[in-house]
Amino acid sequence: MLYCLPYDHQLPESFWQIPARVYAPEAAAPRESPEVLAAVVAEEAGRHTIQVYTDHASVRLLGIFPDDGPDAFFGLWETLPDAALNQQAFAQLAAEAKRRGYRRLVGPLCFTTFHRYRLRLGAAPSWGQFDAEPVNPAYYAGLLTDSGFTPTLTFESRLLQPAVVPTVYDNKAALLAQLQQVPFEFLPLTPDVWQEHEAAIFELVQAIYGANPAYRPVSAAQFKLLYNRTYAEKLCPHTSVLLRERSTGKLVAQSFCNPNYAPLNLPATEPATFQRHYPLLPHRTLLAKTVGVHPDYRQQGLMSYLGAYGMVSFREYYDDIIFCLMRTDNFSRHFTDGFPYETAHYALYAREL
């Protein structure tokens, strides 16, 4: 039996048990922290109405109704392949969203693109699952299609193989030569640098991603739940960087990169750190993940400079690289154009009401 439960300061215990049933036969699974997610939901309840759709056994679905904006959302959706039950859940959620006056239902998205969102589509790529990559059973996309959803935004990740790397260096040689002459300072992003610039990094992230579709700003406290010194300790200090304008001292761009720690199968209670876990990797894949430029400094080639900075140390520390989760209409995707690569695809879905 499907229940619709208004959120009342906590999520039902079954909410945290359903993923284990869903991912038991799967080769990969999302890493989920009930403590962090519970804190996020509790804070976001201040500016959203939240409902839980579940049978307490095989499906969970968070209905998210913002206090402002034209779209309602669904997030933290996990389910066994029960088409009828999912159609019932999405029909109830869509009816409630329409009753409340929203124009679309969008997801999977946990309040904002700052948190977990999107589906991975098609067969698993050769790398299986990289750190924090959206993964889900292959039947998820069909369940959404059957419930009236279609992709509204698409994304991709690109793996450049080791054999391609020398060609990339030759192609970008002129760009590498310019790095010492640009009017910006490159700050290697160590944990100490992160801590020193934490407030400015928060403001930079908000500015870079603030205009992205479905992004909603988060509080500094919510930002620090996920992005803090522990997060900085897993970053690669050789390829991660902040770009600072020399004349003003303002942070204008960022590149957060880390090794793919997923092959180590670390327990959820053991956060990855570069110092401890990088030396344990049998194959060293760099993940180029959170890379962006402040809106006031775009169209100046800074994205290419960030990429070139990462290339300086790449061959010494890594075997290959995945450019992660790029929107297919984003300019950053063009850095790897012209080179052979393997691609994984993802999508955010919407249903008109």
From TrEMBL:
It comes from the Bacteria. Gene3D superfamilies: 3.40.630.30. This is GNAT family N-acetyltransferase. The lineage of its organism: Bacteria, Pseudomonadati, Bacteroidota, Cytophagia, Cytophagales.
